[in-house]
Amino acid sequence: MVSVIAYSVLFFIAAFGNLTVFITLFRNRHRRSRVNLFIMHLSIADMIVTFVMIPMEIGWHATVSWRAGDVACRVLMFCRPFGFYLSSFILVAISLDRYFAIRHPMSISDADKRGKLMLLMAWIFSVVASTPQVGDDGAPSGARCGVAGHGVGMRGCGSEIALGMGS
């Protein structure tokens, strides 16, 4: 029950913060800058975590079972790591952009194109890294997201990921 409350509080804080950032940047999109573009994509990635992963964790911790079927399980198994990968890769892209801005300050003409390319690569790498989660790991239909041992578990990539309900 403590984890449900903690995830719920985290959900509201993350939703408020990320929606505020996204709406502010979206309203001021006429002020186009690379940094704003990076931050907008980072808030989108964090909203994927906030609105997909956190409610999924709350549901699993509250019910200790999976009731949405195999297709929903596969979709959510893809989305669960996707948000984390995307956030991480966008942070790497922001770091690289700042590195290039400091190391090569006179190459401003390439910076916008390079920034958009890095964002595109962050999205592509995130999709590629998350795709193995939806593959057929030999689990029977419906067993991918089910009760595993003492805790709720998810099967992906041929392994069991325990979510900590009594394990």
UniProtKB/TrEMBL annotation:
Topological relation to the membrane, as annotated: Multi-pass membrane protein
Subcellular location: Cell membrane
Keyword line: Cell membrane, G-protein coupled receptor, Membrane, Receptor, Transducer, Transmembrane, Transmembrane helix
SUPFAM superfamilies: Family A G protein-coupled receptor-like
Transmembrane segments annotated in the record for this chain: 6-26, 38-55, 75-96, 117-134
Signal peptide range: none
GO molecular function: G protein-coupled receptor activity; peptide binding
Residue intervals of the G-protein coupled receptors family 1 profile domain: 17-167
Sections of the chain in a coiled coil: none
Keyword rRNA processing in annotation: no
Pfam families: 7tm_1 (PF00001)
GO biological process: cellular response to hormone stimulus
GO CC terms: plasma membrane
Gene3D superfamilies, A to Z: Rhodopsin 7-helix transmembrane proteins
Family: Belongs to the G-protein coupled receptor 1 family.
Protein name from the UniProt record: G-protein coupled receptors family 1 profile domain-containing protein
Organism: Paralvinella palmiformis
